[in-house]
Design brief:
The chain has two domains: 3-151, NAD(P)-binding Rossmann-like Domain (Rossmann fold); 164-259, ProC C-terminal domain-like (ProC C-terminal domain-like fold). 52% of the residues lie in helices and 13% in strands. The protein contains nine helices and eight strands. Strands 3-2-1-4-5-6-7-8 form an eight-stranded mixed beta sheet, sandwiched between helices. The longest helix has 29 residues, at 156-184. The chain binds NADP nicotinamide-adenine-dinucleotide phosphate (NAP).
Length: 261
């Protein structure tokens, strides 16, 4: 499968890293990018940098559009003019397929940066889910993690919130934990980092042993103990609602962005 990325910032880089880790050759990935620093980083990975003007002279199974929403529509129009028969896969958040010049040819996906480690979750939608392009797009994201196929594009707003933004909310929570850990450790920074890494990996390990958070919590807390006191404080401060509100705010913003374009 030959893939070209138009826009190679954070999310494209995560997908590219995951693809390379999955065994795809760097010779099968091309990049169109205008940011010089990004170009240097991509070149170091032996990726081919091409100019948009040369797109028509090359054959790709998929062109992945990974630019900010403000740049997306003009980029799609240019791609379509140059290679009208190549499927375009957009990862741009909040931009409905109907906004593009060729909505029937567009495949829309919402991945997250965990694709870099082959652990991504990607929601994917297209009006025509039987096309070669849609199958190629599913194959691509299956190489870098899990794929959820949506039957209704409207569901993408919720997925954008939970898959795209959700990671950042949990990073924010973990950052508070790290700051507290740093206050109590006398070790140097590297030792604290290693301690923290083991701690967050162990959260995944615990879940793979016992897939029920209530039971996991019960293994830690005892009646009247310290954990219970902390959990009661979280409940009193409505942690569930705080997080649910964050997911809702992200979903609302996704809907707003789609109306702004
Ligand atoms: N980051 C995530 O976790 C994530 C997750 C899911 C979806 N998304 C979506 O993915 C898209 C990209 O996000 P990002 O965070 O990866 O953005 P980003 O880091 O800003 O990357 C976009 C890159 O594309 C370049 N670019 C824009 N237009 C171009 C053009 N016409 N030709 C060549 N290069 C061009 C930009 O250059 P300049 O810097 O010069 O503009 C920038 O380097 C967004 O629409 C976002 O909604 C992001």
């Amino acid at each position: 499968m030959k893939i070209c990325f138009l826009g190679c910032g954070n999310i494209a880089q995560a997908i590219i890293d995951g693809l390379l880790k999955s065994g795809i050759s760097s010779a099968d990935i091309a990049c169109i990018e205008r940011n010089q620093q990004r170009i240097e980083a991509l070149t170091k990975q032996n990726l081919q940098i091409i100019e948009l003007e040369n797109l028509a002279t090359m054959n790709f199974d998929l062109i992945v559009l990974a630019v900010k929403p403000k740049d997306a529509l003009s980029a799609e129009q240019t791609i379509f003019k140059m290679v009208p028969r190549t499927a375009i896969l957009t990862v741009v958040a909040g931009l409905n397929i109907e906004k593009y010049s060729q909505p029937n040819e567009i495949i829309r996906a919402m991945p997250n940066t965990a694709c870099a480690f082959g652990k991504g979750v990607t929601a994917i939608y297209a009006a025509n889910q039987n096309s070669a392009g849609f199958n190629a797009a599913k194959k691509l994201f299956n190489k870098v993690g899990h794929v959820v196929t949506l039957q209704d594009e409207g569901e993408m707003h919720r997925f954008t919130s939970i898959i795209g933004s959700g990671q950042a909310f949990l990073f924010q929570v973990l950052n508070t934990y790290l700051q507290e850990l740093e206050k109590i450790t006398t070790s140097d920074q590297a030792a604290t980092k290693s301690m923290f890494l083991d701690f967050i990996t162990s959260l995944g390990d615990s879940f793979s042993q016992e897939e029920n958070f209530e039971r996991l919590i019960n293994k830690i807390k005892s009646p009247g103990g310290t954990t219970q006191a902390g959990l009661e404080s979280l409940k009193m401060n409505n942690l569930d609602k705080v997080l649910q509100d964050a997911f809702q705010a992200a979903e609302d913003r996704s809907i707003e962005i789609s109306n702004e374009q």
